[in-house]
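note to self — DONT lose this again. spent like an hour looking for the file last time. sequence + predicted structure for the chain T wanted, 428 res
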Amino acid sequence: MMRFPHTGLVLGMMTLFASHAVRADDVAPSYRPAVEVDPARAAVLDRQPVNYLPLGVPIGSFVLFPTLKLETGYDTNITAANSNEKESWLFTVRPAFDLQSDWTRHFLAVDGYFESTSYARYSNADYENYAAGARGRIDVTSDFTIGGYARYAHLNELPGDDETNVNNLGDPLPYEQVTAGASFDKQFNRLWTTGGFDFRYRDYDDWLNGAPSDQSYRDGSDYKFAGRVGYELSPLTSVFVGGSYHWFDMQDSDYNAYEYKVITGLKIEPSRLTRGEAFIGYYDWTSDSGYLSGSSGLTFGANLQWFLSPLLTATFTAGQQVITSNYEFAGFTGSAVVSSTASVRLDYEFRRNIVISGWIDYLNQDYDEFPRVDNQYEIGAELRYSINRFATAKINYSYTDFDTNFNNINGAENYIRNLVLAGVTFAY
């Protein structure tokens, strides 16, 4: 089942292609960084005292930001199951770099990382992830920008990470992923437009738990065009309409599909109390061959921050997408799955360099082909301590409760999981 990224918020079209095996960077919910408007209006996780910012290594007109994360923890259910539970200590080493341009106009960055995680009691659960990519922005004019990105990653799907919890993972499942895209933002007085194209290719390993595994239903490519047009009712508030067309070209042609969405919503720029966006709309997901039943109806999304006080920020996110599953039931294989998420998070700045966070996440997955419904709840907390500009320590706890009405049917299992992580990230 998909895990929620708790280290920050990932917005826009890139959210659609973020892998659950990669932790996201902290990103402000506004399309303009809050600190460009007023530093006092930045959310707790979006601001950091100057004395705690890494220095970086100047390299010509670029600055290199190297980091090294060392982490240990204890997982009470590394197989995310109730019939074959395993628990173990784990250890992670993650060197990374981010090389950013230091130009007055335009922007270019190259980044990468290598991550190795090992388990004290079960070496077959060990895995390695690595990735490299580039991102950039061209400032055509003061009100017109063009952006792009490209990334290659070798990742592992872990027990509990499977998008629809049907693979019955006992060991990590490696896969390759390539993502790329381009976007633009253009302002016309009070009218603004934004749009872009995104691409993703995934290729999963053909072996699962030491046996051949057919992953062709999700091996392949998907493509998406999306755009919005908005109107500023005031300098801080916009209404917008948008649409997208998303199509899937999979190795197993039975899972080829296309989807379109139309939405309307409200965007609130950094203000004294709130910022972010919310929208509702209609979606229609259709199987190319008719092998899977189609899915259509109401769609929604939200990413809102509420400044309860200068030291306390509440964040609410919600979203919906259609994914596919190769789950087998009653002699039939495969289904479209409507996946809906909601999350509430609180971040409290106890001291300038100490942040305490807590969250509640909810995931609901409704199978169109079968009467199967899954629900997952996660409760978590984190303490982040910026020791100085060169080191940040964190301790994190999460409790996961997965429940399905198909418990013990063709591999579906309810389970409970506790995970404690503690580590330090060194930066320069």
